[in-house]
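Fold this: LysR family transcriptional regulator
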Amino acid sequence: MRIDLYTLQLFVAVMETKSLTQAAAREHIAVSAISKRMSDLEAMLNQRLFERRPTRLEPTRAAHVLLRHANTIRRNIQQLEVEMTDLSEEVRGTVRIAASIAVVTQYLPQQLRTFSGLHPGVSVELTDSLSPHAIKLVADGQADIGIFGDPFAANGLSTLPYNEERLVAVLPVGHELLARPSLSFAEMLPFEFVCLRSESSLSTLLFAAAARLDRQISRRVQVSGNEAVCCMVEMGMGISVLPAPWLERHPSFAGVETRPLDEPWAQRHLHLCFNGDRHTLNVPTQLLVEHLRKAD
């Protein structure tokens, strides 16, 4: 019995997507070709690996056994690549990251600069994507690493903590709420808001918080990007909520002031997501994941 590594890679893709079509797109192979590979694999093992359902493939017990061994083999191969690379030349490759423009500008420049110093042979492709789209790009195999924020979840993907940021109330100079040293979200809700796009993780978080209070956010202006939010707040178009680290990095908005937000969800968590176990990622992606999760 001979099972090649590429067939195992395709099998893992089918297991993770539960779809020949999605697995084929992720692995850049024709659906007919991956279907034949799976049929040949079943014949070689003399085991049915998938039950065909109307909308998905249902893995059999034999498929789960094979997946366990396939992941072990892939981890061993990955470790071999790492050790051989350490003994020979520098790591080379390209890693695709999908993240919001706020993350791209706030956190990644310094982190990628230090990573490039350690691994000059690895290039990085950045795609500006809001959290839901970043998760989808990774799930579809169009990005290697996604960065997303609460309250979204990357179901079906592996995740690791990336960063935390404190959210604060953003108010125009002279606003009546500035008389208070800190604010609850309920105290902000009677006023009109400047909001980011509704599909952003921050807007989703704020609208969910309002719903828990059985209230609604009065949205006066919707914009794309933190800088636009500050411009609108500065002009008195409403109030808002933004990450404190971003505001500290952009102190040029003299017409806005901030106040701490007394809410448990105001300490927002950012996460990394990727397909499969991190130990089975290709070497450049594995190195970048480890670098990002350790970065301050």
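The mean pLDDT is 90. The first helix runs from residue 5 to 17.
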